[in-house]
C-alpha cells in the first residue's frame, strides 16, 4: 500500500497553522518534513491501519522511523488494503474483518475503514 502526498502539502500545513493576524504557529520540524515529502509516493506501514491517517515506513532523508500522515495531505491511496477491515477500539488493533474483531472477538467496538458504498476500487 502506498500514498501519494499532495504537491502543496507544506502550503496546506502553513495555511492551517497561521492565525488570523498572519502569525505562524506551526511546528517547523513538521513543516520541513512535509516540504521534503510533498509530491512523493510513500510506502505505508500496514501493520496498524487508520481510517483518516496513514503511518509510513521510514523515509530516507526525512525520518528514521515512519511518520503519521493525516488524510488531508494525501492525494491518492494506491493498492489500499483497508477494504473489509476495521479498527477495534477495544483492543486497539486492526481487524481483518469489519464484522468481528479477529484479535479479541468482539463486535461492538469496530470502526470499519469504509462503508460499503464509500469504497472506490
List keywords for this structure.
8 strands, three-stranded antiparallel sheet, alpha+beta, 2 domains, 2 helices, about 120 residues, about 20% strand, elongated
Can you summarize the main beta sheet? 3 strands, antiparallel
Strand portion: 15-25%
Order of helices and strands: EHHEEEEEEE
Quaternary class: single chain
So what's the overall shape?
elongated
Write the layout of secondary structure elements.
Layout (H helix, E strand, L loop, with lengths): L1 E4 L3 H8 L11 H10 L3 E3 L9 E3 L12 E3 L3 E5 L7 E3 L4 E3 L14 E3 L9
Antiparallel strand pairs: 1-2, 1-5, 3-4, 6-7, 6-8
Helix pairs in contact: 1-2
Write up this protein.
15% of the residues lie in helices and 22% in strands. It has 121 residues and is an alpha+beta fold. The chain has two domains: 2-81, no CATH class; 82-121, no CATH class. The chain has a three-stranded antiparallel beta sheet with strand order 2-1-5, with no helix packed on it. A hairpin with a 4-residue loop joins strand 6 (86-88) and strand 7 (93-95). Helix 1 (9-16) packs antiparallel against helix 2 (28-37). The protein is elongated. The two termini are 14 Å apart. The model has no long low-confidence stretch (mean pLDDT 93).
Summarize the structure.
The protein is of the alpha+beta class and 121 residues long. The protein is 15% helix and 22% strand.
